[in-house]
Amino acid sequence: MESEKLNELTEQASAKLHEHVLDIESLNQWKIQMFNLINTIGDMKLSPSLPIEKENTSLDPTDWPSARCMAHQMLDSSLDYIQYVRDRPVWRAVPYDVRAVIEDEPIPKQGQPLATVCHDVINYVMPYARGNAHPRFWGWVSGEGTLGGIIGDMVSATLNVNACASTHSAAFVERTIIDWMRNLFNFPEESTGGLLVSGTSIATVISIATARQRVLVNVREDGLVNGQQLVAYVSTESHGCVVKAMELLGLGSKAVHLVPVDENFSIKIAELKTAIKEDRDKGLIPFCIVGNAGTVNTGAFDDLLELSKIARAENLWFHVDGAFGSFVILDPQRSHLVTGIDQADSLAFDFHKWLHCPYDVGCVLVRDSSLLHSTFSTNQGCLERTERGCSLDDRWFYHLGPELSRSFRALKVWFTLKEHGTVKLGQKIAENCEQAQYLVSLLEKYKNIIRIVYPVSLNIVNFRFEPEEFDKDDHELLESFNDELVVDIQMSGIALPSSSRIQNRRHIRIAIVSHRSTHEDFDIFMETLMKLYRSRVDTVVMARNGYD
Fold first, then answer.
1. pTM score > 0.85 for this model?
2. SS3 state at 35
3. If you compute the radius of gyration of the chain from its CA atoms, what whole number of angstroms results?
4. Are 286 and 279 in contact (CB under 8 A)?
5. Cβ contacts of residue 2 below 8 Å, gap of 6+?
6. How far does the chain reach from its first CA to its final CA, in angstroms?
7. Considering only CA atoms, which of 162, 165, 177, 141 is closest in space to residue 365?
8. Which side of the chain, N or C, has fewer Cβ within a 10 Å radius?
9. Residue 46: pLDDT band by 50, 70, 90 thresholds?
């Protein structure tokens, strides 16, 4: 009977986790009730007839049944968050009192009941996330995640593996992912190396560091000496992570040569060739070309095959930034966009974008793994390979990148690919590109006031309003109007776009990477957009006419 009563009280405490509190007074009442429940449960656990681990001195629960119940409730909350995602706003501002609960709390000196911590997560964290799990989150190229990814991360946290090296399942899974990606992008079987990282930003650092090592073979010992000025070439549409990588590696932002783009936002090949020649004539040392496989601003692709030919002819490293666009290789209708990607010396891309793995997980592939090894390998007495035991294998990831402490990122990728397969994932990519065209068709109904940036070649749509009531030469007003309209939409909770600057003009940007989006979502967006547009026009006109 005591066990049954204890289970009943534990279930009550777990259910209380889901009670919503709207103010501090309600929170205080909730805490009193929860503490009473916990105290009652604690008193019952003193009974000698109940199996409680009284001698446990670790950080593990002394009452596993109660803790298990709480953990199941948190898992249910996570599943509800995904299953009922459409019932919530895409994004909502964090109320000041909620921020105060989080930000004003001092570091706890004494532990709190697990139920209290879980309640705080459910009430103060989960409702105010960024919103990219929602099907109308289109502000940035951020994947939504999947149930399999959740399970993968949960198991990864359970195992708590440092995936830097040695002989265990995490290493085998990561090697398998690298092999799968090598096959997918048709990199050489014998020589290719790579590893999983937090994302394309650090993958770019690794790639450019390897390119630098190829030219400055003694840079690890001597540093940057003799004033040798290396130069890398990127288009004006390239992501800022390239410049940041150059800065971190001591090469400097001035060593990044920005090459103009054409009407398709692709790098101008002729101007690139001219820039390389002129820099050589100045005594500079060209060492790297960066090609784009889907830019985050417009979804543009450079001519990767032509860039690879230039790189070979000039003896330059050819790096491809394929953060999200590289995975169009899974879409038969658009795979031609990445023709030449197999010729890259290095390729950086993310699984947490168009493959929808939970953040964070990216990848870097390097054509010649010996160069990757020579760039990052170190000798650690406590991390040497042995002929037997748990340190048998010689493919240790910490020799291929800067991190020694590495989470088991590969599991969620492995889980996602095994659960859905490349065919289905490719179909979702194709759907997003088709949805972009559908949105364009809706926007084109308002050609008198909406200016769309063409071409829309992938999944990103940029447009701006130029109201008939406004002076088209009043650029400051138009910039402000479009900026404010973006915020209006975000605050509505209906959708979340972002702003971009294209051809020195502010635009509203829709980046579609949701596997949950449908045509109906874009219909809802357009209805809200036009209502908010009309309201803001009226507000501006009234203000300019002297009304409040």
1. yes
2. helix
3. 27
4. yes
5. 44, 47, 49, 50
6. 70
7. 177
8. C
9. very low
Please give the pLDDT value at position 225.
Answer: 78
How far, in Å, are 24, 26, 133, 449 from residue 20 at the CA level? 12, 9, 21, 44
Per-residue exposure over 386-399, b if at least 16 CB sit within 10 Å of its own CB, e if not: eeeeebeeebbbbb
- The 10s digit of each residue's pLDDT in 155-164 is 999 999 988 8
Phi and psi at 104, nearest 5°, equal -95, -5
- Please, are residues 212 and 224 in contact by the beta-carbon 8 Å criterion? no
Is the omega angle on the peptide bond into residue 360 within 30 degrees of 0, that is, cis?
A: yes
At 20, phi and psi to the nearest 5? -90, 135
Does the CA dihedral 68-74-77-79 come out positive or negative? negative
Which element (helix H / strand E) includes 460?
strand 460-465
Tokens 């994302």 belong to residue: 199
In CATH, the architecture of 191-380 is 3-Layer(aba) Sandwich (3.40)
Tokens 């960024």 identify what position?
130
For the chain, which residues make up each domain, given as ranges? 2-129, 191-380, 421-544
Rounded-to-integer distance, Cα 175 and Cα 231, Å: 33
Token pair of 203, please? Answer: 């993958």
Among candidate residues 517, 509, 519, the one with its CA nearest the CA of residue 456:
509
Structure tokens at 131: 């919103």
Window from 91-105, 137-151, 395-409, 444-458 with minimum mean pLDDT: 395-409
Q: Tell me: domain 421-544, CATH 3.90.1150.170, correct?
A: yes
Which residue type sits at 29? Q
Do the beta carbons of residue 425 and residue 329 sit within 8 Å?
Answer: no
Q: Which residues lie across from 464 on neighbouring strands?
A: 451
Q: What is the CA angle 343-259-364, rounded to 5?
A: 35
